[in-house]
Design brief:
- The chain is mainly alpha-helical.
- The protein has a domain at 13-68.
- Helices cover 67% and strands 0% of the residues.
- Helix 1 packs antiparallel against helix 2 and helix 3 (70-77) crosses helix 4 (81-88).
- The longest helix has 28 residues, at 38-65.
- It is elongated.
Length: 94
């Protein structure tokens, strides 16, 4: 499965594709759990985790591009400024 490369210049609505995929996966997860298919549910949960991580990365990129400090981003993520910076900073996000 490929993940869209969300750039800082794109509006937050660019994340809609990822959110829609998470919604579909959540529906699949509910069905699998109702059927007690735990291994199928684990597979879907793995994909959901990847999609949530892609969504988070894209939102961090966009927040930084719009001037949000690492302190503010860390607070939103429930981690310290340093923790957010260490996890997400790179050549294009410092």
């Amino acid at each position: 499965m490929s993940y869209p490369n969300i750039t800082p210049e794109q509006p937050p609505s660019a994340q809609v594709e990822v959110v829609q995929r998470i919604e579909r996966e959540l529906g699949s997860l509910r069905e699998l759990l109702a059927d007690e298919d735990l291994t199928g549910a684990l597979d879907v949960a793995r994909w959901m985790g990847r999609d949530v991580a892609a969504l988070e990365r894209g939102l961090v990129r966009q927040a930084r591009a719009r001037g949000a400090s690492w302190e503010v981003i860390g607070g939103a993520l429930g981690v310290s400024r340093q923790g957010a910076h260490e996890r997400y900073a790179g050549p294009d996000l410092d």
